[in-house]
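Design a sequence for this backbone.
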């Protein structure tokens, strides 16, 4: 019905940069908030950043000033530019979107998650 496809993960040295992207496809009327979450080994999934349909952003304290979230509404895509990466940024990063799904009777708002992409930062 609706899928989120992530790309851009990989291995980078501390201080380096990496960009992630996530494209939503399917029976989409519109998308409200999109965001990125991450989960490190042995830890709970945590918020990284979110961006509303109006481009209002929110960041976790740990990534403020280093990461930038943005979106292209025409492409139903959200991006995460990660700069000055640290080893503690190592995690699986998940894309999240609140989607208004096209239906016959009325739109339905549902949350979808991407499959996750590994980001590893070496010291």
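Sequence:
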């Amino acid at each position: 019905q609706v899928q989120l496809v992530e790309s851009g993960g990989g291995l980078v040295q501390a201080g380096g940069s990496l960009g992630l992207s996530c494209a939503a496809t399917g029976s989409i009327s519109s998308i409200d908030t999109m965001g990125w979450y991450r989960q490190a080994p042995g830890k709970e999934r945590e918020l990284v950043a979110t961006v509303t349909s109006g481009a209002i952003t929110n960041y976790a304290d740990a990534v403020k000033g280093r990461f930038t979230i943005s979106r292209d509404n025409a492409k139903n895509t959200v991006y995460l530019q990660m700069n000055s990466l640290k080893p503690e940024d190592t995690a699986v990063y998940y894309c999240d979107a609140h989607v208004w799904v096209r239906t016959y009777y009325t739109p339905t708002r549902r949350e979808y998650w991407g499959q996750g992409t590994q980001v590893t930062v070496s010291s």
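The chain has a mean pLDDT of 96.
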